[in-house]
Write a structure and sequence with these properties.
The chain is α/β, with parallel strands linked by helices. The protein is 26% helix and 29% strand.
């Protein structure tokens, strides 16, 4: 299984993609995911969403989010 080939097949011209992350701390994960998808297909319509942005200054701000500068404890969090 090759992730890059599988992703290329999914992202066709004119595709609309939303990257969703539970929480954005530094924004690095969202930045890497966005760069990867745009490298595969620069024509993709890309939006970013998150439940919360935990810091004031992040590398990438999502287009949609519920909370800002708020830490949420999720059931899967190690510190919950």
């Amino acid at each position: 299984f090759n992730l890059k080939d599988a992703t290329k097949k999914l992202i066709i011209n004119g595709a609309r993609v939303v990257i969703i992350d539970d929480a954005i701390d530094t924004g690095r994960t969202m930045q890497l995911a966005s760069e990867y998808l745009l490298k595969i297909n620069p024509e993709v319509s890309l939006k970013k969403a998150s439940l919360t942005i935990t810091h004031r200054s992040v590398l990438v701000r999502p287009d949609y989010f519920l909370y800002e500068r708020t830490i949420l404890q999720f059931p899967w969090s190690l510190d919950a």
